[in-house]
Fold this protein.
Amino acid sequence: MSRALDDLDPRFKPVACELVARASEHLLPVLITFTSRTAAEQAVAVATGASRVAHSKHQDGLAIDICPYDIYQLHGPDKLKWDTHDPSWARLGSLGEALGLRWGGRWHDPLDPGHFEWLLDGEHYKDIPITSAAFAVHGLSV
Ligand SMILES: [Zn+2]
C-alpha cells in the first residue's frame, strides 16, 4: 500500500494534489491514507471490510483516500472507526466534486467519505450528482 502522490496516474495526480491543497486552503488539513494498492492488498481490504469491490481504482492509481487530520488523530488509520457524520467530510466532498472527482461520501454500502476517484472520459455513475463538476470536466451527459 502506498501513500505517495507519485504512485498516482499522471492524469489524476495534479487533481489529487489540488484537492489536498484546497483542503488546506479551507483550514481543513488532511492526511493521505492511501493512494495505490496492489491486487493482493485490495483482497485484504475486501476481507477486512474496508472495501467491497474486487478491483479498485486504487489499483490503477486513479483514487486517493484522505482523512481530516483531527479525525485521524482521534481514531488512527482504521477507517471503520472514523466518525463519518463529522461535517468535515461534507466539506471535503464539496471540494472534490468541484474538481470533477467521484466522491465515496455519496455511497451507502459502504459509505466511504475519504475516497475520491478520477473518472475516465465517458465514465458515469448514478451516484454522481448533477451539480458535480464531473459533467463538465469529463464531458458526461446528464
Ligand atoms: Zn479509497
